[in-house]
Amino acid sequence: MSSRERILGRVRRALADVPPGEDAAIERAYLRQHGDLSEAETVDLLAENLADYRAVVHRCADGELTDVIAGLLTARGAKTVLVPPGLEAGWLGHATAEQVQDRSESTAGELDRVDSVVTGCALAIAETGTLVLDGSPDQGRRRITLVPDHHICVVRVPEQVVSSVPQALERLAPARPLTWISGPSATSDIELDRVEGVHGPRTLEVVLVRDQEGA
């Protein structure tokens, strides 16, 4: 018996008591999160784990976001910034960099010449320090966050922050193109020499922005 036949046999036995055409309920008895963190502690954990993955974390109130983004682009020396079609217009209101619109006909070479990209996110996972993008209008297509060397990602706290992966999966639409980002792009060779920017941005900056009432 081949491995394939063995696996399929186990699946058939597991589904033997399920009536044809009906979905079997899946037991999900695993922990949905570790510990009982407050809202503020969950955001702090996210910031800590993002930094542990070598992302650069900034915090600000909603009214400060425009200046923060402009400052990050200036500090980077960015002359051009890629803009997803649904990004809030006010976010780049004080930026001096030329805004480049995402176009379907843009080549990888053209995207590589863009200095920075600014996006929102679908949500962020505190326990793993992970940002999830789902291709919504404020995030754009996956390629615009993989080719430019500098990515600024805005996370609204606390509403876009969840504690764990199970909580994230409950809120994400599985049919959307999900991109899971834990820190800047990096890889290591057999000697564990770390190289950043191999298959994505070399620098990831995350802005945790809280509305004025919660600031």
UniProtKB/TrEMBL annotation:
Chain ranges of the LUD domain: 46-209
Pfam families tied to this protein: LUD_dom
The protein, known as: LUD domain-containing protein
The scientific name of the source species is Streptomyces cinnabarinus
